[in-house]
Automatic annotation (TrEMBL):
<dbReference type="Pfam" id="PF13744">
    <property type="entry name" value="HTH_37"/>
</dbReference>
<protein>
    <submittedName>
        <fullName>Helix-turn-helix domain-containing protein</fullName>
    </submittedName>
</protein>
<dbReference type="InterPro" id="IPR039554">
    <property type="entry name" value="HigA2-like_HTH"/>
</dbReference>
<dbReference type="InterPro" id="IPR001387">
    <property type="entry name" value="Cro/C1-type_HTH"/>
</dbReference>
<feature type="domain" description="HTH cro/C1-type">
    <location>
        <begin position="19"/>
        <end position="74"/>
    </location>
</feature>
Amino acid sequence: MKNNEHNGQKIKFQILNIIKEIIQLNHWNQMTAAKILGVDQPKISQIINGKTAGFSLERLLTFLLKLNCKIDLSISTQNNSGLIHENQSKDNLDYINLIILPQENL
């Protein structure tokens, strides 16, 4: 698996865990969560089981918005000297910081 594919799966898995945690904290069953997210129950089962297949990053971010989460995304492509290293991959998602905060009124 390419490094950027691995990193993309890592981000998706982290988002799935956040969604799963929100579902559990609200004591929602899978049908309730499915209605809130606008998907069918098997998709919620996939989320609960940490299966990223079939979920784009865009779709997962949309789920977070439906769960009233605030999403801050920052991307850094420069080191402290302001230069990009020649061996630094432009596809490396390690340079993306994703901060997700639950809103007060969930």
